[in-house]
Design brief:
This protein is mainly α. The protein has helices at 10-24, 28-38, 41-52, 59-70. The two termini are 21 Å apart.
């Protein structure tokens, strides 16, 4: 059960997330969906801010933004 709240380092969570995505062969859309349900707390609030801008964001852009914010 992958969860990330923003209270710990981003790197270890994202490494586990990537391994899971590779194992299950998730596409970009699957990764974005899985990430959206894995986030809680401050990380989820930040994610919502990104999407409330009205822009269509690629998974890689979302990850880059989360890394800058919580890295």
């Amino acid at each position: 059960n992958l969860r990330y709240s923003g209270l710990t380092e981003w790197g270890p969570f994202y490494l586990q997330f990537r391994h899971t995505a590779e194992y299950y062969r998730w596409c970009e859309a699957d990764c974005l969906f899985a990430l959206s349900i894995a986030l809680t707390g401050a990380a989820l609030k930040f994610f919502n801010i990104l999407f409330n801008r009205g822009e269509v964001m690629a998974f890689s852009s979302v990850v880059a933004s989360l890394e800058v914010r919580f890295g």
